[in-house]
Amino acid sequence: MMKQHQAHRAPLDLAGIGIGPFNLSLAAHLDAVGELEVRFFDQNESFAWHPGMMLPDVTLQTSFLKDLVSATHPVSPWSFLSYLVANRRFYAFLNADFPAIPRQEFASYLAWVAASLPRLQFGAQVREVDFDGRDFTVRLASETFRARNLALGVGLRPAIPQFLNRLRPEAAFHSSRAAFELARCAGKRVAVIGGGQSGAEIVLSLLNRGVGAPAHVDWISLRPNFLPLDETPFTNELFTPPYVASFHSLPEARRHTAVEREKLAGDGVSAETLQAIYRRLYVLRHLETGGPSTSLLPHREVINAEPMEHGCQLIMRNGMDGQMDIRKVDILVLATGYSYELPSCLAPLASRIDLDRSGRPRLDPDFAVRWDGPAASRIFALNAGLLSHGIAEPQLSLMAWRSAVIANALARRKAFDVERPETMVQWLDRMPQGAEAGGKA
Ligand SMILES: Cc1cc2nc3c(=O)[nH]c(=O)nc-3n(C[C@H](O)[C@H](O)[C@H](O)COP(=O)(O)OP(=O)(O)OC[C@H]3O[C@@H](n4cnc5c(N)ncnc54)[C@H](O)[C@@H]3O)c2cc1C
């Protein structure tokens, strides 16, 4: 039980837990709504967007127009264009004509908004959330707030296969720490596990290191090859509100199957990164001497990692011929992705929340969690709806639209136009009633 503190007197209309891009986008929308009393909290001292993956030359996988607000509130002062203008780089940005913009630029935009937008509180970890029968109580280290509604924007957790937990900390690290740890790989035998974008960016960074490069790099992927992100137009239709509405209306089992089928639309490696890796491998193999040697190992399932005095022994099954393979490595880089977990601060409410078989909360079309509390006390969950709203959920693509839907639900009016836009593809023969999320506003 947490130490009790005097709760601030008037309840907030909304307490936001976590300030990553998703709750930041919601905060930017609520700033325009105006009439609501809101406060957002983040445990970090200041805003930083995945700093552990800010490697040289990494780029945004989505258009910069899919920023915090533009899709739903293009006149907002918190748009990417406003950032360019305020920072006197509008013309230079246009002249640079980036095919994909540096991730550093987008992180800098997000940090600019986070530094200026009111009602954000950093250095404020939410330790416990409970419900007193009327309001939520949101406990921080030294203050407690009451709130009528919550927005959970706590992001995802690094996913680490269980057998890897036995390794010593110096023998392995997750990709979310790569920028801080890659220097340790100098002269070592390194295996990068994971054939997604993070794994690819880390492999490229290791191959490009020059002085300080590893002796050898294994790139291991469960997928049958190093597969590209599908960025073609009809696949991009999956990242639109009409698709989300159709997806949400499906029975749960069909939604699970669809997410599996659509994996490469959100999880593949961008074509530019694959090409950069291939070109670097060519140079290392044919034109330069002294660089790291490499083994590219797709279709390999790592089934165990035995700790050794230095590093570990990896045991893998080759999915192409079914043979087992054993490799010794000094350092393992786990580009094994992220998974959803109900935040621990919600423990007092966990048994009251309706969870699906993956442990995610079941969500209404407007991103409200189904729970057994009063209908007027709502818990909105962002980045939790992979299996309820589809593969756009963990991406930036629909962040502004989701924020507008939630803002409408909170304001109980159509503060933003979230009507279903025109779609090229007829996903279902009959659209579900009220499928426009936000119809509850
Ligand atoms: C390296 C990387 C690159 C990506 N690039 C792209 C891209 O190019 N395009 C795209 O569409 N998507 C991209 N994504 C996916 C997605 O856009 C990001 O993961 C995004 O940051 C998700 O935002 P979020 O707000 O849900 O979570 P996060 O950014 O993880 O933020 C969550 C915040 O919650 C805080 N928090 C957690 N618990 C508490 C607590 N109890 N109290 C207070 N604060 C708490 C954390 O400190 C953190 O600041 C990328 C993801 C990664 C990992």
Descriptive terms for the model:
flavoprotein, globular, alpha/beta, FAD/NAD(P)-binding domain, five-stranded parallel sheet, single chain, 441 residues, Lys/Orn_oxygenase, oxidoreductase, Lysine N(6)-hydroxylase/L-ornithine N(5)-oxygenase family protein, binds flavin-adenine dinucleotide, 2 domains, disordered C terminus, FAD, 13 helices
Description of the structure:
Belongs to the lysine N(6)-hydroxylase/L-ornithine N(5)-oxygenase family. Keywords: FAD, Flavoprotein, NADP, Oxidoreductase. This is Lysine N(6)-hydroxylase/L-ornithine N(5)-oxygenase family protein. Its cofactor is FAD. Pathway: Siderophore biosynthesis. With 441 residues, the chain is α/β, with parallel strands linked by helices. The protein folds into two domains: 14-156 and 340-411, FAD/NAD(P)-binding domain; 159-228 and 268-338, FAD/NAD(P)-binding domain. It is built from 13 helices and 18 strands. The protein has helices spanning 21-33, 80-86, 90-96, 103-116, 178-181, 197-207, 233-236, 241-248, 252-261, 263-267, 271-287, 386-389, 399-411; strands at residues 14-17, 38-41, 120-121, 128-131, 136-139, 144-147, 150-152, 157-158, 172-174, 189-193, 216-220, 293-297, 300-307, 312-318, 324-329, 331-334, 338-339, 379-381. The chain has a five-stranded parallel sheet with strand order 3-2-1-7-18, with helices on one face. Helix 1 (21-33) crosses helix 13 (399-411) and helix 6 packs parallel to helix 11. The longest helix is centred in the middle third of the chain and has 17 residues, at 271-287. Bound molecules: flavin-adenine dinucleotide.
